[in-house]
């Protein structure tokens, strides 16, 4: 955070200072929207959610070291009172970013954003101070919080940018205009909010490359036709990445090791270098190439990029997180979220990891699939059968039951809830099994994965 006094921030935001005995008190640390994550010297942004109102925790935040609370009403402790906290937080972040000069990298896509962000951050950290999105804080609140963690020493600012509807990326890039814009793919996530189809998703995701200046770089996935269709929407130089021979940054001689981790030859304009990823699943090749393309645009060579990718490890929980139990059972926790694309990738990765071992899938609903939901769950059930899973436990009524009915030839066990999944899986799992757990985050199957891993 660029140090600023409460008085300076109040002028910038047009805020009223309330219960602040020292207007010259400096804000020197990042902001937080969770009172449990307050950093001494920072601000606490009091936002009102469906179940919790941050204003109720204002005193706790100040007691924990917050200099003041960014609030929509007086709260009895030092506060900057504004009409809209979210808007004010974005304005503050944009102003702070304007006072420093990091290379800003924005990335978006339907799947793979967080993994790609984590890979890219680990590559760039070897070459300069890097700030990257924490967890999946990629929305109207999360992005400003990330920006406000940057300071004058920051060389690279890696911003995961989510979009649940058209206009979201225009808003986020208005706060943090990127020099490098990276588009991963176009899938079904949030499709119903964007108009219903992949072309609508592409229109929304393409707002990222539209925000780039003529001196920027638009990094497009050569393997995704909808992403390639964005080429005419940007003034920036275009750099293609992917497994296609037409890609400037590409992977050749791709193979999988015994732990289902990709091994390939990285090809960039600066040369070639071998990559051995520490992440599971062939779909990680695309994520690694996306990170490599961004690093290439920032001037890194093939050998430097490969070194960073080879050393990179999983940073975010619930994404193909592997736990080996003492009885030889391998639990694969991929329950952070789920879409048809990520469900297919995860199932294939788990099956590849298993080799000839017995496989158990514990699957719940994929959210936000709208009218296509039943058909998409049916397709996943068929894939479970086609891949040769031995056991399928489906969790919940409705669409998971459609998944169960479609998994012909598999031993299928529907259960009502997460607790039932834990109980049944505990009974069915045998020593040496590979257990894959996945659903949309609201289903809560991460708790099932953690319980099974702890046995």
Automatic annotation (TrEMBL):
<keyword id="KW-0963">Cytoplasm</keyword>
<dbReference type="GO" id="GO:0009252">
    <property type="term" value="P:peptidoglycan biosynthetic process"/>
</dbReference>
<feature type="domain" description="Mur ligase central">
    <location>
        <begin position="108"/>
        <end position="295"/>
    </location>
</feature>
<keyword id="KW-0436">Ligase</keyword>
<dbReference type="InterPro" id="IPR036565">
    <property type="entry name" value="Mur-like_cat_sf"/>
</dbReference>
<keyword id="KW-0132">Cell division</keyword>
<dbReference type="GO" id="GO:0005524">
    <property type="term" value="F:ATP binding"/>
</dbReference>
<dbReference type="GO" id="GO:0005737">
    <property type="term" value="C:cytoplasm"/>
</dbReference>
<dbReference type="GO" id="GO:0047480">
    <property type="term" value="F:UDP-N-acetylmuramoyl-tripeptide-D-alanyl-D-alanine ligase activity"/>
</dbReference>
<dbReference type="InterPro" id="IPR004101">
    <property type="entry name" value="Mur_ligase_C"/>
</dbReference>
<protein>
    <recommendedName>
        <fullName>UDP-N-acetylmuramoyl-tripeptide--D-alanyl-D-alanine ligase</fullName>
        <ecNumber>6.3.2.10</ecNumber>
    </recommendedName>
</protein>
<dbReference type="InterPro" id="IPR036615">
    <property type="entry name" value="Mur_ligase_C_dom_sf"/>
</dbReference>
<dbReference type="Pfam" id="PF01225">
    <property type="entry name" value="Mur_ligase"/>
</dbReference>
<dbReference type="InterPro" id="IPR005863">
    <property type="entry name" value="UDP-N-AcMur_synth"/>
</dbReference>
<keyword id="KW-0547">Nucleotide-binding</keyword>
<feature type="binding site">
    <location>
        <begin position="109"/>
        <end position="115"/>
    </location>
    <ligand>
        <name>ATP</name>
    </ligand>
</feature>
<dbReference type="InterPro" id="IPR051046">
    <property type="entry name" value="MurCDEF_CellWall_CoF430Synth"/>
</dbReference>
<feature type="domain" description="Mur ligase N-terminal catalytic">
    <location>
        <begin position="33"/>
        <end position="77"/>
    </location>
</feature>
<dbReference type="GO" id="GO:0071555">
    <property type="term" value="P:cell wall organization"/>
</dbReference>
<feature type="domain" description="Mur ligase C-terminal">
    <location>
        <begin position="318"/>
        <end position="440"/>
    </location>
</feature>
<keyword id="KW-0067">ATP-binding</keyword>
<keyword id="KW-0131">Cell cycle</keyword>
<comment type="pathway">
    <text>Cell wall biogenesis; peptidoglycan biosynthesis.</text>
</comment>
<keyword id="KW-0133">Cell shape</keyword>
<keyword id="KW-0573">Peptidoglycan synthesis</keyword>
<dbReference type="InterPro" id="IPR035911">
    <property type="entry name" value="MurE/MurF_N"/>
</dbReference>
<keyword id="KW-0961">Cell wall biogenesis/degradation</keyword>
<dbReference type="GO" id="GO:0051301">
    <property type="term" value="P:cell division"/>
</dbReference>
<comment type="similarity">
    <text>Belongs to the MurCDEF family. MurF subfamily.</text>
</comment>
<dbReference type="InterPro" id="IPR013221">
    <property type="entry name" value="Mur_ligase_cen"/>
</dbReference>
<dbReference type="InterPro" id="IPR000713">
    <property type="entry name" value="Mur_ligase_N"/>
</dbReference>
<dbReference type="Pfam" id="PF02875">
    <property type="entry name" value="Mur_ligase_C"/>
</dbReference>
<dbReference type="Pfam" id="PF08245">
    <property type="entry name" value="Mur_ligase_M"/>
</dbReference>
<comment type="function">
    <text>Involved in cell wall formation. Catalyzes the final step in the synthesis of UDP-N-acetylmuramoyl-pentapeptide, the precursor of murein.</text>
</comment>
<dbReference type="GO" id="GO:0008360">
    <property type="term" value="P:regulation of cell shape"/>
</dbReference>
């Amino acid at each position: 955070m660029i140090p600023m006094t409460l008085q300076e921030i109040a002028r910038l935001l047009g805020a009223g200072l309330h219960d602040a005995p020292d207007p010259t008190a400096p804000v020197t640390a990042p902001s937080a929207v969770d009172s449990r994550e307050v950093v001494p010297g920072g601000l606490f942004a009091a936002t009102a959610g469906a179940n919790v109102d941050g204003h109720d925790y204002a005193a706790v935040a100040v007691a924990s070291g917050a200099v003041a609370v960014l609030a929509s009403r007086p709260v009895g402790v030092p506060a900057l009172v504004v009409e809209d906290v979210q808007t004010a937080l974005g304005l503050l972040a944009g102003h702070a970013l304007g006072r420093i000069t990091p290379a800003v990298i924005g990335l978006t896509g339907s799947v793979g954003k967080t993994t790609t962000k984590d890979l890219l951050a680990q590559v760039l950290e070897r070459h300069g101070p890097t700030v990257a999105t924490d967890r999946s804080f990629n929305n109207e609140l999360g992005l400003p919080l990330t920006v406000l963690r940057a300071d004058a020493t920051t060389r690279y600012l890696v911003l995961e940018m989510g979009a649940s509807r058209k206009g979201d990326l225009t808003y986020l890039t208005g706060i943090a205009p990127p020099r490098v814009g990276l588009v991963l793919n176009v899938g079904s996530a949030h499709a119903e909010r964007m108009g219903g189809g992949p072309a609508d998703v592409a229109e929304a995701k393409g707002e990222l490359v539209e925000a780039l200046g003529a001196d920027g770089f638009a990094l497009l996935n050569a393997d995704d036709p909808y992403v390639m269709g964005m080429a005419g929407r940007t003034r920036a130089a275009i750099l293609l990445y992917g497994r296609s021979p037409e890609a400037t940054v590409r992977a050749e001689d791709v193979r999988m090791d015994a732990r289902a981790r990709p091994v390939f030859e990285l090809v960039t304009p600066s040369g070639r270098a071998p990559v051995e990823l520490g992440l599971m699943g062939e779909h990680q090749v695309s994520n690694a190439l996306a990170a490599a393309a961004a690093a290439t645009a920032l001037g890194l060579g093939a050998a430097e990029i490969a070194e960073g990718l080879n050393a990179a490890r999983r940073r975010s929980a619930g994404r193909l997180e592997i736990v080996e139990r003492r009885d030889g059972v391998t639990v694969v926790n991929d329950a952070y979220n789920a879409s048809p694309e990520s469900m297919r990738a995860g199932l294939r990765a788990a099956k590849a990891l298993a080799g000839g071992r017995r496989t158990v899938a514990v699957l719940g609903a994929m959210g936000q699939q709208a009218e296509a939901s039943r058909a998409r769950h049916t397709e996943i059930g068929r894939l479970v059968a086609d891949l040769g899973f031995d056991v399928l436990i489906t969790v919940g009524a409705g669409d998971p039951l459609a998944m169960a009915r479609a998994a012909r030839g598999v031993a299928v066990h529907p259960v009502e809830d997460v607790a039932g999944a834990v109980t049944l899986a505990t009974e069915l799992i045998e020593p040496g099994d590979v257990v894959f757990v996945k659903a949309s985050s609201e289903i809560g199957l991460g708790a099932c994965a953690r319980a099974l891993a702890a046995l």
